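P.,

For your records, the input lines for the assembly:
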Amino acid sequence: AQSVSQHNHHVILSEAASLELGCNYSYGGTVNLFWYVQYPGQHLQLLLKYFSGDPLVKGIKGFEAEFIKSKFSFNLRKPSVQWSDTAEYFCAVMGFGTASKLTFGTGTRLQVTL
Amino acid sequence: GAGVSQSPSNKVTEKGKDVELRCDPISGHTALYWYRQSLGQGLEFLIYFQGNSAPDKSGLPSDRFSAERTGGSVSTLTIQRTQQEDSAVYLCASSSTGTGAYEQYFGPGTRLTVT
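Structure tokens returned:
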């Protein structure tokens, strides 16, 4: 079975601060990894994804994530957050052989203050 | 183009009643998924349809839950004899293929409240 752990449940940052949200997964085989974002009142949107190749992936709005296979991690980063980044962030894993279903972490609520 | 749509957006029902939730996937997408988002449980996979293959029902929490997909497009999730613990946001997603690692596009969800 696959599982995802997000260590930070609620993060509060000031604008321009740097962001790193932790994500660790558990799965014995090859994985595809995703970060989704849910802005207030909106539906889930894909932020970025890792399939293969360069373990440092860049997504929309200046976000990036690094896949570290040895650590089973896929942490999300942004050098300088904006107030508009206030949202809930979900890490998800799709293991090969799991019928393409996503297993999500419990989410991290990010609040950016002015 | 149009995204995934779901209806109704909100549904309030009495305990014991049956409810039907509808999902219209993105045109041409062969794979369709249902997830549930609830407080304390996060986002949970419920069921997955891929083309004409038998659906993967491994995430359905009980036999009160069922889903069908007609004509390879629209899907209906049915919850019979609703219970208060069924209160959640039910999300539908579709993707262009069920194999490999293609992006799943999510709909706005149906918020179900069981009173």
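Two observations worth noting. Residues 5-97 of chain B form a domain with the Immunoglobulin-like fold (CATH 2.60.40.10). The radius of gyration of chain B is 13 Å.

Regards
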